[in-house]
């Protein structure tokens, strides 16, 4: 499992570790890891010896890391030039080390006046706030235009380390070398998109970090440990029965897709309630159908309500009926527009809300752009306001529990091919099946998002896919994580 910690927590851990180490040892550890990563990039482009490297150096420790790493590269025969964005506040020890190794200080983006093999971004560190200053932004643009790969030190300069927000001009890196632990901004868009490939350097910070991180990213083994596997005595009821209330005359396919996700997610049985019974049975004859209301459909361990439901009176009544159930309930799509916030907060059984950015904005009463720019704040606020587990869909899907002390989970398997009609309906059904199997809401939502993203990758193979393609690839994703 990957974990990420806030700047405040990282700073406290660094102070505790530095108190036990010789002066400067922590920076040297970081510089050694950074130099090794730079050397890997240079070797892939030819060789370290004779290569040309430009360091963009700001004030403070981030710039110091870049300078000491540059000194190491210079000692290996690389030509290294440092461009100082704040000359009067550059790290003195790092500057001395670079000069002693043969590196030089340059003026502006024409540090080499020609071919450049690598640019290293050490302008601002994790304490930076706001976008790049105009001069630094112009310098970054000029060097980006050379086509040289750009490697960021700890995180791309100009992004917000704690939130993933980008509040102005920011570096777009091909790779980022971060130290000690991941920072939230490296994992959450829009900042994560600018980080490129991530490389974590162990500087000994682990023992100083608290047990509970701010963010978690599940890996295959973590998801595999969550997924239910039927035993010898299992039957359809023990495996979990999920109820699906979805579809309408306008959106009949939503019912089929939600049921597809539920069946391929391992549900022992699916009970469908809604006007799309004929379409559902035609595609999935094993489905149990009922005319409604949901409370009369039979026993279920979890409900999924909302995909393609429409906004009529019957739809609103169905949402109210489901929310009154004493089992786990997932609300998606039209159900989110029809739910009563008070009814959600009053529930004693688990509730999962699965909005995209537009739906989240409507629930919070803010512009969509505010949600997209500050995804972490939005998902936390939704979970707290509705006392529910919230899966916020998007370029980076986030899962937040209603307990503020519980880490937010970030899904690492998303792909832009999921931006297609009906893929959210499949995710709802898949999550519902895991809720019915007995997974805790946060685990069900996290595992479902992980499988959903993997299924899209299986189905697409770099080409366009439909939501039904994604549903049919869920078993392959399941096999991946259990391999």
From TrEMBL:
Please state the Enzyme Commission number of this protein: 4.2.1.136, 5.1.99.6
Protein keywords: ATP-binding, Isomerase, Lyase, Metal-binding, Multifunctional enzyme, NAD, NADP, Nucleotide-binding, Potassium
Subunit field text = Homotetramer.
Q: Protein name, please?
A: Bifunctional NAD(P)H-hydrate repair enzyme
Please name the SUPFAM superfamilies in this protein's record: Ribokinase-like, YjeF N-terminal domain-like
Q: Where does AMP bind?
A: 393-397, 424
Which PROSITE patterns would you find in this protein's record? YJEF_C_3, YJEF_N
Per UniProt, the cofactor note for this protein states:
Binds 1 potassium ion per subunit.
List, alphabetically, the HAMAP family matched.
NADHX_dehydratase, NADHX_epimerase
Q: Where is the YjeF N-terminal domain?
A: 10-211
Cofactor names from the entry are: Mg(2+); K(+)
Family membership: In the C-terminal section; belongs to the NnrD/CARKD family. In the N-terminal section; belongs to the NnrE/AIBP family.
What highest taxon heads this organism's lineage?
Bacteria
Summary of the function given for this chain in its UniProt record: Catalyzes the epimerization of the S- and R-forms of NAD(P)HX, a damaged form of NAD(P)H that is a result of enzymatic or heat-dependent hydration. This is a prerequisite for the S-specific NAD(P)H-hydrate dehydratase to allow the repair of both epimers of NAD(P)HX. Bifunctional enzyme that catalyzes the epimerization of the S- and R-forms of NAD(P)HX and the dehydration of the S-form of NAD(P)HX at the expense of ADP, which is converted to AMP. This allows the repair of both epimers of NAD(P)HX, a damaged form of NAD(P)H that is a result of enzymatic or heat-dependent hydration.
Q: Where along the chain is (6S)-NADPHX bound?
A: 61-65, 125-131, 154, 254, 308, 356, 425
YjeF C-terminal domain: from which residue to which, for each copy? 219-481
Note the PANTHER family from the entry: ATP-DEPENDENT (S)-NAD(P)H-HYDRATE DEHYDRATASE, ATP-DEPENDENT (S)-NAD(P)H-HYDRATE DEHYDRATASE FAMILY MEMBER
């Amino acid at each position: 499992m990957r974990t990420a910690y806030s700047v405040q927590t990282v700073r406290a851990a660094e102070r505790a570790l530095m108190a036990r180490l010789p002066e400067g040892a922590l920076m040297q550890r970081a510089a050694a890891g950074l130099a090794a990563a730079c050397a890997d990039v240079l070797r892939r482009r030819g060789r370290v010896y004779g290569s040309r490297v430009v360091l963009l150096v700001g004030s403070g420790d981030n710039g110091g890391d870049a300078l000491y790493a540059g000194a190491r590269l210079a000692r290996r025969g690389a030509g290294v030039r440092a461009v100082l964005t704040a000359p009067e506040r550059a790290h003195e020890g790092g500057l001395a080390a670079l000069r002693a190794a043969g590196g030089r200080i340059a003026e502006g983006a024409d540090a080499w006046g020609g071919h450049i093999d690598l640019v290293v971004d050490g302008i601002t560190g994790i304490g930076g706030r706001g976008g790049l200053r105009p001069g630094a932004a112009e310098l970054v643009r000029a060097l980006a235009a050379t086509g040289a790969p750009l490697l960021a030190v700890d995180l791309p300069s100009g992004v917000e380390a704690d939130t993933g927000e980008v509040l102005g001009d920011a570096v777009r890196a091909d790779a980022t070398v971060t130290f000690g632990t991941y920072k939230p901004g490296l994992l959450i868009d829009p900042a994560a998109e600018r980080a490129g490939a991530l490389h974590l350097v162990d500087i000994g910070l682990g023992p100083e970090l608290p047990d509970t991180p701010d963010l978690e990213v599940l890996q295959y083994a973590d998801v595999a440990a969550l997924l239910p596997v039927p035993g010898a005595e299992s039957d359809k009821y023990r495996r979990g029965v999920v109820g699906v209330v979805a579809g309408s005359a306008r959106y009949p396919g939503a019912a089929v897709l939600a049921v597809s996700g539920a069946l391929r997610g391992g549900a022992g049985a699916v009970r469908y309630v809604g006007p799309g019974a004929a379409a559902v049975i035609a595609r999935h004859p094993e489905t149990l159908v009922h005319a409604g209301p949901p409370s009369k459909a039979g026993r279920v361990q979890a409900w999924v309500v909302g995909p393609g439901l429409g906004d009529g009176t019957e739809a609103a009544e169905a949402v109210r009926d489901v929310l009154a159930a004493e089992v786990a309930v997932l609300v998606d799509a039209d159900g989110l527009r029809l739910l009563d916030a008070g009814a959600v907060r009053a529930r004693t059984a688990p509730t999962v809300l699965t909005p995209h950015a537009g739906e989240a904005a409507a629930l919070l009463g803010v512009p969509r752009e505010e949600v997209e720019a500050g995804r972490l704040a939005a998902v936390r606020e939704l979970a707290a306001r509705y006392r529910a587990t919230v899966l916020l869909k998007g370029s980076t899907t986030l899962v937040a529990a209603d307990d503020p002390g519980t880490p937010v989970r970030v899904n690492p398997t998303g792909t832009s091919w999921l931006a297609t009609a009906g893929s959210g309906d499949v995710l709802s059904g898949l999550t519902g099946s895991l809720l019915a199997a007995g997974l805790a809401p946060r685990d069900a939502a996290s595992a479902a998002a992980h499988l959903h993203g993997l299924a899209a990758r299986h189905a697409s193979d770099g080409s366009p896919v439909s939501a039904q393609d994604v549903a049919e690839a869920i078993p392959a994703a399941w096999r991946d994580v259990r391999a």
